[in-house]
Amino acid sequence: MKHLKLLIVVAALILGSCNVQQRVLYLQDVENGSEITLPKNYQIRIKPLDQITVVVNSKDPLLAQPFNSSTSYQSLSNAGGVTNATESSLQVMTVDEKGYLTLPIIGRIKCEGMTRLELAREIEERIKESNYIAEPQVNVRFANLCISVLGEVNRPGRYDIQSDKITILDALALAGDLTIFGERDNVAVIREVDGKSVITKLDLRSSDIFTSPCYYLEQNDVVVVSPNKYKAATAEINQNRTFWISIASTGIALATLLITLIK
User: Fold this and answer.
1) Domain check: are 150 and 186 in the same one?
2) Quick check: 226 pLDDT over 90?
3) Total domains in the fold of the chain
4) Is 182 in the same domain as 207?
5) Which domain holds residue 251?
6) What are 108's strand-pairing partners?
7) Are residues 169 and 124 part of one domain?
């Protein structure tokens, strides 16, 4: 009988351990050596109201100066003899609501949906077609590229992005990974699309995340990790405990006051 009880306890512990692993392990359906096809050359694309900087460089800095009206220059030449503008005083320009960017000399350019490299090439072509500069070099950068990670992660917050692409796994790594209470199968990505907030749920335990439209994040995406039922129950217990402690403290204070008045 004792052996039977011991066997039952051991079996319960093993089953409980397996259940915990199923809740917290990532990519459970992926085998060693698995190959998953990802979108090629993915890069974040420009959206209305994005803020960007544009620097035009030339072998002759005087030719490039009108295109960088708010940029100071310094005489630093690289191996190709191109003088680069300093970026300490760059003007941050905002893409308008219709997806256009207005540049000095060049005028308006429809840039919505372009990558920053595609926009740089478009600006170079505009400059060459107008015979302003024979061999311009254009550098385009995002000035407000960031994502937010909230909920059951170790370092929730808003993070600036330095790369042209970031995955959901990269974002969670920036936030210090999920806590033990975070639901791996219920991670939400909130994305603004055509003036509406679109919510996509991801299951980090499944390889399906690689084919999700939210595997690669976009600027201003918000990642929300929900707490599991154990964290929710703990929070409720703590809240109730705090409530009753507060009631008890108030009661003791009133009783003490009444005793003092009676005396």
Assistant:
1) yes
2) yes
3) 3
4) yes
5) 229-263
6) 102
7) no
Domain final residue pick, 142, 159, 179: 142
- Same domain for 204 and 176, yes or no, is yes
Least confidently predicted of 88-92, 206-210, 212-216, 230-234: 230-234
Are residues 161 and 175 both part of a single domain? yes
Count, residues in the chain: 263
Is the model's pLDDT at 194 over the cut of 90? no
Cα angle, residue 29 at apex, residues 24 and 30 outer, rounded to 5° = 105
51-87 per-position pLDDT tens digit = 999 999 999 989 998 888 654 444 333 434 444 444 4
Instruction: Bin 141: left if φ > 0, else alpha if -120 < ψ < 50, else beta.
Output: beta
Confirm whether 129 is domain-assigned. yes
